[in-house]
Amino acid sequence: MKLKKMMVITAAFSMALSVTACGSNNNSTNNGGNNAAKATNNATTETAAPESTDAAATDEIVPEDGATLVVWESKEERPFADEIAKQFTAKYNVPVKVEELAPPDQVTKLTQDGPSGLAADVILIPHDNLGKAASASLVLPNDVFGEETKANNTEASIIGSSYEGELYGYPRAAETYALFYNKSLVKEAPKSFDDVLAFSKTFTDKSKNRYGIMWEVGNLYFNYMFIASDGGYLFGKDGTDKDDIGLANDGAIAGLKEFVKLKEALPIKSGDINSDIKRSLFNSGDVAMDITGPWELGGYKEALGDNLGIAPIPTVNGKTAITFSGIKIFAVNSFTQYPNAAKLYANFASSKDAQLLLNKTIGSVPTNNEALLDPQISSDPYVSVFAEQAKNSQPMPSIPEMGNVWSPVNAALPEIWDKNGDPKAAMDKAVQQIKDLNNSASQ
């Protein structure tokens, strides 16, 4: 990905312009043999003169006789998955079983279970996992619906769904994170993390399990803002240089020192925080602010109603907060017995109507151009905040080496947070581990 691509992806999140201007296992399946080599060639074709792009692509293939599908979905997005699977079965007479598996874990699971026929037919992954999957031939190209997908979705989401110039994914949502807050507790959204800390000194009481703010402090995804806002980075400025790792430069360390200060607001161990705990405490009013993504929007709106507020991430040491962003995409398992049905499902579940359903159910930000212009999206004050934050986000690198980043950094952050480890020493160690992994993989 060259600089131009990086800029396009960042502009990806220029959905902000569209939106504001217009208003975390059951792995057994009935899949069998290794059909990767023939999967892309056994589509049954038909000719038709459809009235729309959607109809044109859909009429090109039909599900295989006796097809059944297994789809991996996130726990948070299960309500959408159940409904869209029901709709797909009604239309195509293909039973769909939904299994919960965190999207960041799906490519690893596919690597293990795909060749033996035990993986899902359709997977849901963050775009930064695509390079690993595609380079290992674990997923099929988006061929039948490729032109339709490109025409209907933002350019950034298409880049995020592609690897080395070939389209593999079916984009369905654009994601970054923002600050959720309880208006009955926080009268005005904090502009800086200094403001967050000042409020938390009046609210946090560990003996009552009450905290001014909570987020997953051991997870790089949610803490990239402390690394990047003052000049830290991953894999060079264009996201493709595996040897240029700025996770321990002066800017990154300056930001991580601000990260450490927030222990006063959240005086608990990183291992005592997960999405379920955080969600429960926020819904009950025992956490006043939560840093998370649009997948929590539906549940938080139901729990807090008009008391729910969302704001961009507060500034870090006086600098605009730079968050990670990504595209969540469907991909088809190259070992599926039912490639036609799987491709149909991936396309159906990422269509305009499906993305609007996902937004209504979960609160996601669409990638479909028409969905972005729909009043349901354009007039939504919450979605527009995510769009605003997205303008100050950096897309996660999609090169395969990105898979080597998570474990080292997700070990360094708890070292800093839980054990008062020196940020520079912890991050230097993580960088060296990443480089060692990168180099061993290339040998």
UniProtKB/TrEMBL annotation:
- Database matches in SUPFAM superfamilies: Periplasmic binding protein-like II
Segments for region (Disordered): 26-55
Q: Where in the cell is it found?
A: Cell membrane
Is this entry keyworded Membrane?
A: yes
Is Transferase one of the keywords? Answer: no
Q: Which UniProt keywords apply?
A: Cell membrane, Lipoprotein, Membrane, Signal, Sugar transport, Transport
CDD domains the UniProt entry points to: PBP2_Maltose_binding_like
InterPro entries recorded = Maltose/Cyclodextrin-bd (IPR006060), SBP (IPR006059)
Q: Secretion signal: which residues?
A: 1-21
Q: What topology does it adopt in the membrane?
A: Lipid-anchor
Q: Which family is annotated? A: Belongs to the bacterial solute-binding protein 1 family.
What is this protein identified as?
Maltodextrin-binding protein
* Organism field: Paenibacillus odorifer
